[in-house]
Amino acid sequence: MLNPMFKKENFKAAVNDQLRRLFRTTMDEASNHQIYQAVCYAVKDVIIDNWMKTQQVMKEDDPKIIYYMSMEFLTGRYLGNNLLSLTAYGEVMEALNEMGIDLNALEDEERDPALGNGGLGRLAACFMDSLATLGYAAYGCGIRYHYGMFRQKIKDGYQIEAPDNWLKDGGYPFELKRPEYAKEIKFGGYVAVDHDEKTGRNHYHQEGYSSVRAVPYDLPIVGYNNNVVNTLRIWDAEAINDFSLDSFDKGDYIKSVEQENLARTITEVLYPNDNHMAGKELRLKQQYFFVSATVQTAVKKYMKGHDDIHGLAEKVCFHMNDTHPTLAVPELMRILLDDYALEWDEAWAIVTKACAYTNHTIMSEALEKWPIELFSRLLPRIYQIVEEINRRFCEQVRAQYPQNSEDKIRAMGIVYDGKVRMANLAIVGGFSVNGVARLHTEILEKRELKDFYEMMPEKFSNKTNGITQRRFLLHGNQALAAWVTDRVGSEWITDLPRLSKLALYAEDEKAQAEFMNIKYQNKVRLAKYILENNGVEVDPRSIFDVQVKRLHEYKRQLLNILHVMYLYNKIKEHPEMPFYPRTFIFGAKASAGYARAKMIIKLINNVADVINNDASIKGKIKVVFIEDYRVSNAEMIFAAADVSEQISTASKEASGTGNMKFMLNGALTLGTMDGANVEIVEEVGEENAFIFGLSADEVIEFERNGQYDPMHYFNSDADIRTVLMQLINGTYSNGDMEMFRDLYNSLLYKSHDRADVYFILADFKSYAAAQERVEARYRDEKAWAKSAILNTAHSGKFSADRTIQDYVDDIWHSEKITVR
After folding, report:
1. β-strands 543-548, 460-462: how paired?
2. Beta strands 190-196 and 201-207, pairing class
3. What angle separates helix 595-612 from helix 741-748, to the nearest 10 degrees?
4. Catalytic member of 358, 464, 468, 657
């Protein structure tokens, strides 16, 4: 039922009232941004009513609460999504139209909250949306970064990192500051021990520490049409003593604000460059900062409604999204041991029933490890607890595996070889360990975490990732959403498998024409965006071949752009050859300290400059790098894509979720059998995708036997040799033969254990052949339309609603709440 506030006259009055109260202005004189703020605050008033009701129901019903802890929450813009969840989007659009305001333009006034970067953060945001829509009580717990990771600028083809100042207008309209829930977080110092003669117990407390105040800001997570509003709680850092008047009066102006500046550094940026020790220390500080604040708050909230701390795990679950929040294990132990005076075994029994861990990576180098020197200096009490957890676990290993215990400890030890290994701590301290796609979980169980799986198989399970259809279809592709609803009803909005009914229309010529016309209109919209932002004119009738995701070598953007160079060579050599026009679209951020990834961005842009300015090829190929890839432009990109590039080296991608968003919007997958691609192909059929390359087993076997030789492909294949030589002969670097030398060397000469670590040359010709199949299929308009409709129809499995229900059924065992 629509809230009365959203009746047109009521909403208009509310917006005018907000303009008066916030800005002392009228609609006639207000700027677009002031109107945007006023609309947000009018919507927020409705949300707050439901938010308060939800908190009251949680208090009365006492459900189990999930604390979903993540370094990233890539939420995207709030205004449009909130209006859809409140089922008020159409009414608000009409009201604003009558006031002479375009809602779409108003949404563009909103900056994406800079709280995440890649798939990890977007997954967390999708999960929060699904938890609220399904009616499960949850808090998302993270950090209120002031500048995000960075705002990407492209200058002369290079990535430039600029601050993403999303809070520059004095905050964010949908957030609420909650200083009453602030917590003190302690760093450094030493651990003092007091012995109690009466009880015979030692009492531990930190002395000589520095501390900051963690202050929560709450953002609403609005469930779809069910009145439930959960909370995304992001923590900001403030100084305990923020200003020294004494230092200021003595003329020491820098020292006067020293504490304030030290606190601010903790929440300035996501993933500070850790190529140096100061960066590593800041990352560890960030992790403990938000974990400690979250765990302290959760325990206190639990104890407000309960008398016995021993029942905590029945009502609270700390879910660790990757290894970043793993300090939840020793922090909860610290609170139970030091604040509640529990014995070790009592505390450990609670912790190991309250903490769960999702693994997001197969690559061992991505599993966090902290130097003991840094860890023990920054977190002295936590380190003591971790050492004791490790000591007891190693005793258990020695008892269980007397014949090869040291080999087992080498693989599973938490403190080993001068480092604290966070994944091992998460596994030992949690009751559940899950992978995020079936193949990923199998590789964890059989290879990466084999020893843990053999020792504690009951902890392991698979939970294939999912996405929210409400963000990526209902909001991001409104024309297709309306078309779908006309054919199968609106139930798909909260029950995505209902899309399977669309399969009936896959061979219907009228439905095919309508579906492809919607795709064309979305391509026109994206082409307009590209022209405005890149100055490149692209043909919406060309094949839109898209790869947008975090830039990492294993995701193989390099394979993609090398293939573009190969196609360009073919067209130059044979201008008469039949060739369906292609627009290759890239979007990616590379970590600030990841030099090779940043050079791949430079290569993509240099190739684009050469190809886009070559009139002789008559626009057959265009290459576009979309600057500052983020959720708001991603919605537009997914809706417009024909081809979804999911070309990671088999066995390296844990799941991927971009693949699911493309599929939902009717793009065909071009990919390896990696991550969730395997399950996508199972759902849609291999005839409706383009699969190529080595299998995961073949890659793993090459890595084991060391027999892969990329030089073989260089020597035996003239096409590959020509493309690679163009990296060092100045073709794409204005004659500079050294600019891309590192990329060339990485493919042919050993670095670390071997050359071409991600098997780009091994898969090159298989990839090229798959691309030829793409063109052949696209020329057959009816065949392509059929496959596109079937991709949308068979995307039902990949809803985050299904994933969250799997977590509830198998891991969390929480109960639904109802807000009336």
Report:
1. unpaired
2. antiparallel
3. 110
4. 657
Active-site hit among 44, 552, 555, 563: 555
Can you read off the two tokens belonging to residue 785?
């339309």
Residues 6 or more apart in contact with residue 266 via CB below 8 angstroms: 143, 212, 237, 282, 285, 286, 289
Task: Reply yes or no on whether 657 is catalytic.
Answer: yes
CA pair distance 674, 664, nearest whole angstrom: 18
pLDDT digits (tens, 9 = 90+) for 364-403: 777 899 999 999 999 999 999 999 999 999 999 999 999 9
Could you report the per-residue pLDDT of 212-271, keeping only the tens digit for each? 999 999 999 999 999 999 999 999 999 987 655 555 556 654 554 567 777 889 999 999
**Considering 77, 144, 319, 549, which one is annotated as catalytic?**
549
Report the relative pairing of strands 419-421 and 201-207 from DSSP bridges: unpaired
Instruction: Decide: 429 and 440 in contact? Cβ < 8 Å.
Output: no
Question: Which amino acid, residue 352?
Answer: T
Percentages helix, strand, coil for the chain (3-state, rounded to 5) are 55, 15, 30
Q: Dig out the tokens for 476 from the structure.
A: 């991001």
Residues in the chain: 820
What beta strand segments (E) does 738-790 contain? Answer: none
Sign (positive/negative) of CA torsion 507, 508, 511, 512? positive
β-pairing, 176-177 with 210-222?
Answer: antiparallel
DSSP-assigned letter for residue 83: H
- Look up 661 and say whether it is catalytic: yes
> pLDDT tier at 169 (50, 70, 90 boundaries)?
confident
- Stretch (H or E) spanning 237: strand 229-239
Q: Are 738 and 747 in contact (CB under 8 A)?
A: no
Cα separation, 346 vs 756, in Å, equals 51
Of the candidates 44, 77, 334, 360, the residue annotated as catalytic is 360
CA 737 distance to own-chain centroid: 37
Terminal CA-CA length for the chain: 11
CB atoms within 10 A of CB 706: 9
Which is nearest to 358 in space by CA: 387, 396, 323, 393?
Answer: 323
**How far is CA 126 from its chain centroid?**
9
Q: How many other C-beta atoms are found inside a 10 Å radius of the C-beta of residue 2? A: 12
Alpha-carbon distance 284 to 777, whole Å? 50
In this structure, what DSSP letter does residue 687 have? G
Q: Is 550 part of the annotated catalytic residue set? A: yes
CB 519 within 8 A of CB 666: yes
- β-strands 183-187, 210-222 pairing: antiparallel
**Catalytic member of 334, 369, 661, 786:** 661
Query: Residue ranges of the alpha helices (H) in 665-759?
Result: 677-684, 696-705, 710-716, 718-725, 741-748
Say whether 54 is catalytic: no
Which of 414, 416, 436, 433 is CA-nearest to residue 425? 414
Q: Strands 460-462, 432-435: parallel, antiparallel or unpaired by DSSP?
A: parallel
Tell me whether residue 249 is exposed, middle or buried, using C-beta atoms within 10 angstroms of its C-beta: 0 to 12, 13 to 18, 19 or more.
Answer: exposed
Q: Answer yes or no: are the C-beta atoms of 349 and 431 closer than 8 Å.
A: no
C-beta separation of 673 from 691 below 8 A: yes
Question: Are the beta carbons of 774 and 722 closer than 8 angstroms?
Answer: no
Q: Residue type at 175?
A: E
Cβ(740)–Cβ(542) below 8 Å = no
Which of the following is catalytic: 550, 570, 754, 765? 550
Number of CB atoms found within 10 A of residue 60's CB: 10
pLDDT one-digit tens code per residue, 593-635: 999 999 999 999 999 999 999 999 999 999 999 999 999 999 9
Cα separations in angstroms, 192 against 189, 205, 384, 423? 10, 5, 12, 29
Contacts of 237 (CB under 8 A, 6+ apart): 185, 212, 213, 214, 215, 263, 264, 266, 267, 289
| Contact assessment for residue 759 and residue 649, using Cβ atoms and an 8 Å cutoff | yes
3-state SS, residue 325? coil
